[in-house]
Sequence to fold (218 residues):
Amino acid sequence: MIRVMLVDDQELLRAGFRMVLGAQPDIEVVAEAGDGAAALEILKTTEVDVVLMDVRMPGMDGVEATRHVEGPKVLILTTFDLDEYAFAAVKAGAAGFLLKDVPPADLVNAIKVVHAGDSVVSPTTLRRMLDRFAAQLPTDAPLASAAGELTPREREVLLMVARGLSNMEIAARLEVAEATVKTHLGRVLAKLGLRDRAQVVVFAYEAGLVVPSHRPKG
Fold:
């Protein structure tokens, strides 16, 4: 059973999500909150697997709350995909973001995907966000140094992930098994202290490995 928490200041929206998720045999809504601060208080005493977090709320917003969430996966809810708040939330550790008018089936699938440990933010959409907000991403020398710990193949996989390629596409380009790509990506995440593919994309831009024109430096 996947335990879900709804965090949104709009009670009607929470009711809609609760109705959709309540119809799923393997998902249970175990808690709700109207802002980030209340959500963090509830998380101290409630076991939650996935948090559906509105990005814009009075008081503590979803970005700040996401920074303090430890354990549960966070899915950010936003009204439009090129949202600097949603982008900031992914940087803060969210597993991805969903539009508030997401079809019910996509909402359910997204919760299951992040619960399984993957990211639901579309790498291509995130890349568009990074291009748009590139001015907020000065090259971070320590991050670039951390990338130096990667093997040439791990660095290759990182750059392909950052360009939005799936494991299957990377495997085809490198002419290796998809399981091999997963192994390389797992080592990249471990070495760089990253949670998922979404953070790999952000890391690549912040470290200066990928620039808005999508060309690697050097």
Q: What stands out?
A: Residues 2-121 form a domain with the Rossmann fold fold (CATH 3.40.50.2300). The mean pLDDT is 84. The chain has eleven helices and five strands.
